[in-house]
């Protein structure tokens, strides 16, 4: 049975997780329904189709993995790999729930439950609507199995068939022997030294950028193991209207909306926004298709101060735009956001031993995650029922109380919000603030 080693960042996510703090991502899709039985039919389809998607059969097991990454030989325990589960049963992963009037309330409870690590680490929960005219599907994927892009691919595999371009074939790899060829040793040594040099360079940049980090109390907490979710739908044309008036990118506007919503939310809940400028981690994909981990996550990130304390909405947007431009000019290998790249230079055993400590240190580097998850522009369907809205749900780092994920789908922007259930009992208030901030920006552009 063949197995693919986890990429270093995937291994880090696998070892950061604890029973009290799951590290899976999710997506809550809302479908229109033709009948009250649509949800049950959707659950049957998902279970039947899951067996035919190879990526959904993959479980994660411990393996022997090298200490020096350049040697690429089984010398030390501590790694993990994906392999096909011979006993895979889709009925263990697809669950039909009772009808509900509040999809997000149920999704929040389900997002707080860790995935079963001895099985392929994913689940699909079908939530029929009480009104019979819609149903929802909550997909959960462990970050070690799939990042946002790969989770989208896996989820699309159980949707109704679409005409998609055929994937490029993976280049064949040369067979590996039990021991390294002595002719390869000089190159391996150079590779190890180069890895060390890059790690030191990235580490120094992270350290310099993190010297002035101060946590924002409202965005940090002691993990409770509970979750809440909420969703916001905006008109993409409104976002483009702001972008065309002020300049910058759509992503700049979406990040500035988060900054303004945080200001409104903190003031309304009585915490106050004066002198508040939390650090937001903006993930940047550095996926390289022809690596030793072709399916693995490889992320860096931009770190910016959200100008929550600035009362002028257009000034907040200008500040976000300038910060993002500086990050892009410096590149994703610089700044505290590049800390994820260090995973590539850490031995597998160190990931296993140091994972919990690294997870607890997340609050030292940033206060809130704001990530973008791309979705196809084509309409998706399940059993003939069209997908009308989809809310991406990001993993919540240990010690953080709120994470924001954003997707655009068929002319709308969908904000998916995940929060610690005890630290943020008023997540709906923040969701309302997101909607109000867009209206504020539009009004400011007209004046």
What is the compact description of this entry?
The protein is α+β, with helices and mostly antiparallel strands. Helix content is 34%, strand content 23%.
Largest sheet: 6 strands, mixed
**What fraction, in percent, of the residue positions are helical?**
25-40%
State which percent range the strand residues make up. 15-25%
Task: Indicate the radius of gyration in whole angstroms.
Answer: 22 Å
N-C termini distance? 65 Å
Low-confidence stretches: 67-77, 164-211, 287-294, 335-359
The appropriate CATH architecture of the largest domain is 2-Layer Sandwich
* Arrangement of strands in the largest sheet: 5-6-7-2-13-12
Shape: globular
Structural class from helices and strands?
A: alpha+beta
CATH superfamily name of the largest domain? Answer: Nonribosomal peptide synthetase, condensation domain
Give the count of helical stretches: 11
Order of helices and strands: EHEHEEEHEEHHEHHEEHHHEEEEEH
CATH class of the largest domain: Alpha Beta
The tally of strands reads 15
GO cellular component, one term: plasma membrane
Keywords: Acyltransferase, Glycerol metabolism, Lipid biosynthesis, Lipid metabolism, Transferase
Protein name: Diacylglycerol O-acyltransferase
Family: Belongs to the long-chain O-acyltransferase family.
Topology:
Layout: E1 3-5, H1 8-16, E2 24-32, H2 38-50, E3 58-65, E4 76-84, E5 94-96, H3 103-111, E6 122-128, E7 134-142, H4 148-156, H5 185-209, E8 227-235, H6 236-246, H7 250-268, E9 279-285, E10 299-305, H8 313-330, H9 348-360, H10 362-365, E11 368-372, E12 381-382, E13 385-393, E14 402-409, E15 412-420, H11 427-446
Helix pairs in contact: 1-9, 6-7, 6-11, 7-8, 7-11
């Amino acid at each position: 049975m063949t197995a693919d080693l986890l990429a270093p960042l995937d291994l880090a996510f696998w070892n950061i997780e604890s029973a009290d703090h799951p590290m899976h991502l999710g997506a809550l899709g809302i479908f229109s329904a033709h009948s009250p039985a649509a949800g049950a039919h959707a659950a049957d389809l998902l279970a039947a189709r899951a067996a035919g998607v190879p990526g959904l059969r993959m479980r994660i097991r411990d393996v022997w993995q090298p200490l020096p990454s350049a040697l690429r030989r089984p010398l030390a325990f501590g790694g993990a790999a994906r392999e096909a589960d011979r006993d895979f049963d889709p009925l263990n992963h697809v669950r039909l729930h009772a009808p509900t009037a509040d999809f997000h309330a149920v999704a929040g409870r389900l997002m707080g439950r860790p995935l079963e690590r001895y099985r392929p680490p994913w689940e699909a929960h079908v939530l029929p609507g009480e009104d019979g005219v819609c149903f929802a599907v909550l997909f959960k994927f462990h970050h070690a199995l799939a990042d946002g892009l790969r989770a989208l691919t896996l989820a699309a595999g159980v949707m109704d068939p679409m005409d998609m371009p055929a994937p490029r074939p993976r280049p064949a790899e040369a067979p590996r022997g039990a021991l390294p060829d002595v002719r390869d040793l000089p190159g391996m040594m150079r590779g190890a030294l180069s890895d060390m040099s890059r790690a030191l360079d990235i580490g120094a940049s992270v350290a310099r950028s993190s010297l002035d980090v101060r946590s924002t109390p409202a965005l940090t907490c002691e993990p409770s193991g509970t979750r809440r979710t909420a969703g916001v739908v905006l008109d993409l044309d409104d976002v483009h209207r702001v972008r065309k008036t002020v300049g910058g990118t759509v992503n700049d506007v979406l990040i500035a909306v988060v900054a303004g919503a945080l200001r409104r939310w903190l003031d309304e809940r009585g915490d106050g926004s004066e002198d508040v400028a939390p650090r937001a981690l903006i993930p940047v994909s550095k996926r390289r298709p022809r690596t030793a981990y072709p399916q693995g996550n490889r992320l860096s990130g931009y770190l910016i101060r959200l100008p929550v304390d600035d009362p002028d909405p257009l000034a907040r947007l200008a500040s976000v735009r300038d910060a993002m431009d500086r990050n892009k000019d410096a590149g994703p290998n610089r700044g505290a956001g590049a800390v994820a790249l260090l995973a590539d230079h850490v031995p597998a055993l160190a990931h296993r031993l140091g994972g919990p400590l690294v997870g607890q240190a997340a609050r030292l580097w940033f206060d809130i995650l704001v990530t973008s998850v791309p979705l196809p522009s084509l309409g998706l369907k399940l059993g003939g029922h069209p997908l009308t809205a989809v809310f991406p749900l990001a993993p919540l780092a240990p010690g953080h109380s709120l994470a924001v994920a954003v997707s655009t789908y068929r002319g709308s922007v969908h904000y998916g919000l995940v929060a610690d259930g005890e630290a943020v009992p008023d997540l709906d208030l923040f969701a309302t603030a997101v909607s109000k901030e867009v209206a504020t920006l539009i009004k400011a552009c007209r004046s």
